[in-house]
Amino acid sequence: MNVSGCGRRMEISELKAKFFALLREDVEFRYAVAGLLGLEEILRRLDRSEAELVRLREDFNKLREDFNRKSEEDSKRFISIEAELVKLREDMNRLREDMVEGFRRHDEEFARVWDEIAKLREETNRLREDMIAGFRRHDEELAKLRADMIEGFNLLRRHIDALGARWGIISEQAFREGLRGVAEKELGLKVEKWVRWDEDGYVFGHPSTIDVDVAVRDDKIILIEVKSHISRADAHAFKRKAEFYEKVEGKKPSRLIIVTPYADEDAIETAKQLQIEVYMGV
């Protein structure tokens, strides 16, 4: 076994020596061996490259599948986002339209309010002017009424003077009726007899019939007492008649007037204190 092994090694050594000798000495052999060695390496490399290409192709296909799946998902996402954007744009357009409409209504309402304010201002100005004109007319009518009253009482005084000549033969009742007619005709006053029963005796201190002449002008009540002469007691009695009238009718007379041809000084002073106007002419 040892001899055989040694022989085997010797043969291999001899073959190597011859092989190396051929490589050194025989150019064609050397190129042939080199070509064989290079082709095998190339084939090995090609095998490795093909395997690598297959792996790369598989990786590429996987990447392409991932990319396609990602692209599809992105496309769906982009489509969803675009739909949301379209919806958002529509909502914004509707909101813009609502805002424009709201501003338009606001402007119209604001303009209407200003028109109402302008109309109210005009109405207020007209009302103020009417009130001023009314007050002016009222003052003028009061002045005219005062002048008419003065003229009427002057005329009444003249008629009283005329009646004075017949005073001795004319009764006080006839005298009063005559003066009432003069007041109605000359002063434009409607004079009526007001008669009530004073059960409590407020005027004279005992129950009695109370009568007084009443004239109404421009809703103003004027009580008129016509007597042939008056005293302090007559003035107080007339004042109590006015208070009794107010108590019964619920209306306060605006003026108290006594028409008489004669009154003493005490009666005139008392009437003045009681705010009673006294007209004398006989």
List the topology elements.
Layout: H1 2-25, H2 27-164, H3 172-187, E1 190-198, E2 208-217, E3 220-226, H4 232-249, E4 255-260, H5 265-273, E5 277-280
Helix pairs in contact: 1-2, 2-3, 4-5
What does this structure look like?
- This protein is α/β, with parallel strands linked by helices.
- The chain has helices spanning 2-25, 27-164, 172-187, 232-249, 265-273; strands spanning 190-198, 208-217, 220-226, 255-260, 277-280.
- Strands 1-2-3-4-5 form a 5-stranded mixed beta sheet, sandwiched between helices.
- The longest helix has 138 residues, at 27-164.
Instruction: Tell me the domain tally.
Output: 2
Shape: rod-shaped
> Helix segment count?
5
Helix-strand pattern: HHHEEEHEHE
Radius of gyration: 70 Å
Q: Taking all residues together, what is the mean pLDDT?
A: 77
Q: Main beta sheet: strand number and arrangement?
A: 5 strands, mixed
First-last Cα distance:
199 Å
Low-confidence stretches: 165-170
Fraction of residues in β-strands: 5-15%
Strands, count: 5
The spatial strand order of the largest sheet comes to: 1-2-3-4-5
- By helix and strand content, what is the structural category? alpha/beta
What level of helicity do the residues show? over 70%
